[in-house]
Specification:
Number of helices: 7
Strand order of the largest sheet: 2-5-1-6
Radius of gyration: 19 Å
CATH topology of the largest domain: Alpha-Beta Plaits
Helix content: 25-40%
Shape: globular
Distance between the termini: 35 Å
Mean pLDDT: 91
CATH architecture of the largest domain: 2-Layer Sandwich
Number of domains: 2
Structural class: alpha+beta
Amino acid sequence: MPSQNGSEGIMRQMTVTLNIVTPLFLGGADPNSAPELRVPSFRGVLRYWLRAALGGALGDQDMNSLRKAEAFVFGDTNNSSPIEIRLSYSRLSHMGYNPLPHKAKRFQFDGFNPDQTFSISLVGRQVTAASWRAAIDALLLAVRLGGMGRRSRRGFGSLCLKHVDISQAQLSDPWSELLGQVPNSVSEWEQHLKAVLGATEAEATDLAENLGLSNFSPLSSPTFPILSPKNNIMLCHHVFSDWEDALKTFGRAEHVFLSRNPGRAQAFGSANPRWASPLWVRVLPTKCGVILALTLIWSQPPPRLHANESDLRTFVLDFGRKWGGKWIV
């Protein structure tokens, strides 16, 4: 693959220690076995968020350009990735949790318990600055807006940065500053998320330009989930006592809305045909409890589904009115 700006890649490494905020349902090949941390699972999540960021820069009309940019960071079937992902952890305790906390316990998923930590390292060998920053983009988006494992779009598998070692990362601002921030209030989270989104948008655009890729405006209903100014992120200012309180409240509100509006259910995702929910729920810790962030990333549903973005947006607006929601993007 080509180098950018005519420069040769160099060795870089960054290690982040992550705290588990909500139960983490991350299984191996057997979904009914005990949870385990696996590099392929993390690589898949980072690819999702990298693609979402690149889609905002490249649009969704030239998939070849998108694949080229993605491969430059995380590789493809013909080229290995210049970014290696490593996981480090001690023995993590786990137990069964109700994945639908607003309902009576019918079944459980085995998940890692909250308030435990593990570390993920990104190691770049002969990696260029642009591809290195793009990988960090993906990690930040995954931690700040997304989550890991089953039910991650409904708040489970939420993680937060506890410590970051960038001594060998060779980063400058805004990345060194963003990685060092530990938001502890609603206002601090709002400022931080805006800064992360601004930085990732700029870096995705820079990577595309360095690779000489054309930019197309994304369709009004993109063909895959992308981050763009048309997305919305709502930060709910109500401080919940803990993650269980927050997810029970959200789950109950979603259940009541769909019970009253069954015709709108397909906008929330579908199992058959498979279409992942466009709504990401994220539990953010503060010094007084936790708050919720709702990220709406709409994309075209399968033809068989009658899903309308307005149906999902109506629910988000209703929830926000009750729980102090404010659009930050």
